[in-house]
Write a structure and sequence with these properties.
This protein has 495 residues and is of the alpha+beta class. It contains 16 helices and 14 strands. The strands form 2 sheets. It has an 8-stranded antiparallel beta sheet. Strands 1, 2, 3, 4, 5 and 6 form a 6-stranded antiparallel beta sheet that branches. Helix 13 runs antiparallel to helix 14.
Amino acid sequence: MARSCPISTSFIIISVLSHFTSSIGLRPWPDVLPNELQSLDIASRLRVDPNATRMASRDFGKLVHPPNPAAPPGPRPFLRGQAMAPHGFVVEMRSLNNCSRGSGIRVTKNPISGSYADAGGEQLWIDVLQATLKHGLAPVSWTDYLYLTIGGTLSNAGISGQTFRHGPQISNVYEMDVLTGKGELVTCSKNTNSELFFAVLGGLGQFRIITRARIALKPTPKRVKWIHMLYHDFSTFSRDQEHLISINGLDYLEGSFFMQNSPPNNWRSSFSPSEYPRISSLISKNGIIYCLEVVKYYDELTSRTVDEELQELLKGLNFLPGFVFTKDVSLVDFLNRVHSEELNLRAKGLWDVPHPWLNLFVPGSRISDFNSGVFRDILPKINQTTGTFLVYPVIRNKWDDRTSAVIPDEDIFYTVGLLHSSGADDWEPLENQNKEILKFCDKAGIKIKRYLSRYTTKEDWMNHFGPKWRTFEDRKAQFDPKMILSPGQQIFNSV
């Protein structure tokens, strides 16, 4: 028996809702499906029961809760309720695994025009990694955490330590199938329906549901050399980072820092426990220690030369003598490193806790001021263990300005991730600290851009998008005129 395709379900729902919202407006869903939906063949697959809505309303940050428990808000692994849909509906993307078009992962090897994987928007990046490695291939740009969907990361940017070299994930997509807010299933690329293609990439889910993405692949080695180097001086640390991203040879670069309230044994740490006392002593002496993290991939052909190549690449850096740590691990273990720690935290009940994160892009010309005002002044004020802090540079010309993503207008800018974790009752001081950081940037004239941002007023969103706002607004009118998609962002339905 042929299996019906959930994409058609989504198509019908959006088409019906487009008509439905025109006649009744956006009001809370009743306890049973409206008559307009009850009459459809798909009615049995639509759920409004408390169990379904409770699961759909879980916000990863645990800071936002649905205003109406009868309304099914959005997908779970999102921060600050951005994917919630008050008085709306949720498409369970993982159900697209059963769909004949736009789902699964199909790898095409073509050494001349370029290899690629066609992956459904519901697929996880870990699934893409496992499927492509069977062919000796892999995507070139990743996120630190692989248990995220293709559609989810492409709606933002998708960044990690490979971004300086290959750009974000949205710079490594050839083509997509998307379902627009008008109920149209459209194939788009740089050359076909290009306005929709660039709108969707980094578009915060405002224009479409991604049902398929064609992702660029490259041949990939199976092992990596993974090196951490420690610094006590920020200007030296940032200068070495910027030097390394300006030369060829490394496959990954990120930076982080440790403080008394963010020790080296945090959830993202890869240090051996035997090294904690030495590193903690450095932190006690200096107040803050910076960590430069680099990776070089290698295979059997380069195994004899990789150490020499790394030595040449790192020559002239000014890290602290005696504080260089090297690991030799498989590519899969490296790329999937956060998940390993996730399992440990889940076992201790420390994963599903509040996460008042703040992710920023900081202009390179002001990163020293940001370090002085935020890292050394604001962050140490809270006397509680908080989480992981990231800071590393990326290059603007690796991003396509035609996408909806917003970044600082400088050749080099820094990704700053203040990845706080807290107990159920002590997250508010961290959230207030985040507000203090934003106020500091505003007062100091540091023109940051927020990543994974959330604002509550249209004016704030207009300021966020800056010169891109008019284009973003025009694209919304073109591809989702009834403003059905992603209301939780509060961009076009803000107060």
